[in-house]
Description:
The protein has helices at residues 4-10, 22-31, 43-48, 68-71, 77-89, 136-144, 152-164, 179-190, 193-196, 217-220, 277-286, 344-359, 362-377, 391-404, 407-484, 488-492; strands spanning 97-106, 111-120, 124-129, 171-177, 199-205, 227-232, 247-250, 267-269, 334-336. By secondary structure, it is of the alpha/beta class. The protein is globular and about 65 Å long.
Amino acid sequence: MATLLDYLRHNLATFDEEPFNSLDAAILSQAVMVRGFGVVPSLENHRDHPKFPAAPAHFSDLLRAEYFDTMFTGLDPAALKENLFALAASPRFRTLAIQDYCSVFDQDDEVQFAAITYRWKNQFAFIAYRGTDTSRTGWKENFNLLYHDAIPSQKKAAWYLETCAPLLPQRLYVGGHSKGGNLAEYAALTAPAAVADRIEGVWLFDDPGFKEQLFSPEDYAPWTERMVKVVPQNSMVGMILESHAPLVAVPSSARGIGEHSVFTWEVEPLDATPTSASELANVQAASKPTTEADSSAPQAATTTAPNTSRAAASTVPDAPARPKGHPLLDYGSWQFSTLPALPEPTRQFHENLSTLIAHYDEAARKEAVDALFRTLDASDAESSLDLFESLPRSLAILGSAARNADNRDLGTLLGVGAHFAGITASASAAQAVKGVASARKGLRETGRAISHGLSEAALTAQAVGLVVGEMLEESRVAAKGNHDEIAPDQSSAPKTPPNDAG
Length: 502
């Protein structure tokens, strides 16, 4: 199975040669997880000196071993490190300008926010929002989504987009992973029209969504072909809250919370992908425009991003069309592998969670969230990563939390857990009854089909019998007629020559 890191290693086309695509968006949604303070110039610098900003950074500038211990955050820091090295080596990404770094962390206000802009010349810019780090503050802010219309990071995301837009090329892309996707979604949906109209693509990678009814389907109508939510097949994070963005599911090589990492999602190369410098040179040579002096030279087909009026043309020859379920996923020499539909268990998990959350008002949700984090504070976990390190470690943390936590908090959490278990059991029972009914219906239909088949077979046998009978009768009549035409003495007398002996 190919992954994003395989794409990074093998796609050598620059953005002048192949347009920005969904895999690029996924990769940069992870690059923003690398802490760039002191290396990437700040948004403040660019805003205050728009004509003479500080020189942008590049991925190679982030390769500083002395920072590695704290540079990579999130659930998969090892993959982030590998991603950074691949970006610095890639001819597609190594000259990408990195700028407008903004990071805010406030424990008291429960804010963990960061964003970076990646710019290609004056052609386009991708604004990437950071997902959740490993801090308690970051995770607490996530859970605050359950009862807040807008968390502080969402407001900062909207401010960042509106502030950056006048400083950037006309063509804008926006995206993020997990909470970063949520921030991208919020910023796009609340952007002023002058900014929103410039955004050609918004990628949401397994983001959790919003409190119910915060946005309506009508709010998403202008974004139908410019926004897509991509989740792994057994998504948990991406199925927690509500979103009306078009959704596409992709296979993952991991299971459980491991599927949340985009580095486990399956991608596939299309037939025309150049995988070496020589192949790339051949593609580039083949794509040069035909001149009058060489009118016989073949023209290479080109591909463009969905908005062909402003998108740069690709010199990679057209590959066979492989629709992925959304315009933002349907182009590029590599694409996400996609599933025909969201798996039923994943859809049911979302419905069960929605039922649970709807049962509690905002005050009860806040009480449950506060109880959860007070309980985790009572455990011996040092960071959120400890919860996902291994099953024994997770059980040990839960055990220490149960021993040290306040009984009222434990009672609150057990009540929520019991309610969710009841919802899940009811849904499973309903599915079982539906399955039995479907099986009965299937048996009835099978019985009717068998009965119909037997009737058809009987009629067919009868018809065959009649035809065979008619054929036999015709043969008998024909044989009798032929016999009457032959003289008796000629039918049996031997034919001997005349006796001339006298």
